[in-house]
Write a structure and sequence with these properties.
The complex is a heterodimer. Chain A is mainly alpha-helical. Helices cover 69% and strands 0% of the residues of chain A. Chain A is globular and about 60 Å long. In chain B, strands 1, 2, 3, 4, 6 and 9 form a 6-stranded mixed β-sheet that branches. In chain B, strand 7 and strand 8 form a beta hairpin. Classes of the chains: A mainly alpha, B alpha+beta. Chains A and B meet through helix 6, helix 8 and helix 14 of A and helix 1, strand 1, strand 8, strand 9 and strand 10 of B.
Chain lengths: 545, 155
Amino acid sequence: MFTEALAKPSENRVVLAHIYTATVAICVGALFGVIQAFSRANAIVVPAWFDYYRMLTAHGVLMALVFTTFFITGLSEFVVYRTIARPQRKLTTAWLAWWLMFVGTGIAAVTILSGNATVLYTFYAPLKAAPSFYIGATLLVIGTWVVAYNIFENAFYFRRTTAGTPLPLPVYMAAATFLMWIIATLGVVAEMALLIPWSFGWTSGINVMLTRMFFWYFGHPLVYFWIMGAYIIWYSIVPTRYGGNVFSDGLARLTFLMLLVLSTPVGIHHEFMEPGINSAWKLLHMVMTYGVAIPSFLTAFAIFASFELAAIKAGRKGFIQTVRFLPWNDPFFSGAGYGMLLFILGGFGGLINASYSMDTMVHNTIWIVGHFHVTVGGPVALTFIGATYWLIPRLTGRELWGRSIALWQTRLWFIGMLVMSLSMHYAGLLGVPRRTASVEYAGATLAQSWEPSMLLAAAGGGILFISVCMFATVAIGTLFKNEKTHDTMADFAVPAPQSDPTPPILQHLFRWSVVALVLAFLAYTGPFIELFHSHAYLAPGMRTW
Amino acid sequence: MHIHRYERWWMIFGLFILLAFMSTVFIAAIADNFNPPSGDQTIDPTKVSSTPPFDHPGLRQKPDGNYEAYYVSQIFMFSPAKITVPVGRSVTFFVTSADVVHGFEIAETDVNIMAIPGWVNEATHRFSKPGTYLLVCNEYCGIGHQNMYGTIEVK
């Protein structure tokens, strides 16, 4: 384990700004979420001012786009600051990034809450939001590019001043994550370049399939952006909680390299059920999607191997002793550990969704909603919450207040998410559609049989909401209690001393991102050309809410 | 880079799972022609109500005894709202949208496709069991999305 550059208050403040924004986003987003779960199950009657779809838009944007993005950008800056010592680090661009993201989020949030962008977080054209929604979202993305610049600039500084020493593992992972992110966000920025002038009324129509293809070019790597954020924590921070090591430095880097290269050329698996895309392209994207499952298989092995090696070192053996050896009473480990368990469900569900014709059974049913709650809402969110408990003392110098509340919060989240998402998966197989304010259909017989699973999902949502309230309590309590802590150093896990050196071929991230671009180009050029060749009609924008 | 023996076994196991999934899908796609929809007809979304055959949406019998159903999805209804199909016949659904994106899901069947303005999508299903099937819109389309449904009576 290496410890790092000393904590600097100025650096801590900019990271904290990200982590606090993420925390507020998840708490507000969860409030909307639980009301939706109950009203959809017909368990409560919501007041008329509660516009289901407006709040659903806010829930999706706050959770999937704001919470995750602010946390990952904050975490990445944190690992860079704590592994690369730099006497005078300029934080101007770091603050510029946060302000861009924050102002963008604020503009989009006001637009959504005022009812001018009830387009859900996928903003599928020709639903037409007010221009400020698209502009706010674009600012958020541009802010993340500035974060990416910061990370690369620090990585170059490290290479320059250490005569080409390999990047510290957490920095390598953050850099791979943001290289992937830049390639991916080119898609959404291209989409915005179509949507913004159209929403101002400067263009009269929009090519719907083109915007969808741009969206999913970005939309699936977005998922990997979340996952990579969680993997940074699983590989390089979690092992320090049980005295473990990175199982293999080379394989950890290989995992991130594969995610960088393979995350983008897979997006059409979200468009299996759409016209205008040839089956051959859909099959190709399915195969690539299977490919991007490989780094997750590697990660599953690496993590369990790290657990077991640490247990053996401590004189334990066998499965049960290894499980008992792990620090389940540590809120951080508990969050990350239960998150890993949820990811087993999420991973296999993902393979089903990606399986081409099999997707017919689950496409746009509430199964899909169950799936992303057991991925981004499970492993990712729970790991981030756990890591927040670890980050707060290290960023504020304050002892975490309410440790046992924090611990039970992670356990409740696990239970709530299991109950909610398993009910949603099951309901999806029965045919329950997603994204509806209710599932009554004028009392149709089939729809009546859906009610029990909707109620169970709402119960899970209720447990999750209690869990979020506990998270908010701990965060606020820590702010007010203000007890000094000595836990201000951030340890990062390193490989076991006897492990092999990492092959140099894994070090050249920029060269590998060229490979990633080439693959994205190969996977998408054909489908785009097809769209341009077919006689596409433009659709006028509409406000149907 | 040395790769631990167990890890190699695990990688082989993982690759085996992926290959097994993949070959199942490929066999179904090639041998049984089981592919997701990929309709390639386009249509002017602003003129759906005057473009045949969508100017008269509904069910038509083909010379071979099977059926074609032309559906227009628009906020917040399907036209036709209800069709009646004899049991055991296959129906090919041609679906388009007159406004925003809609979903076209017939619960308890494998018909589950997107209705995109500007395009005609299609799916075929043989109704082998009699009953009342529920057709729902499963893509958010606006304030009345939850009220957008239809009925398929199979007798």
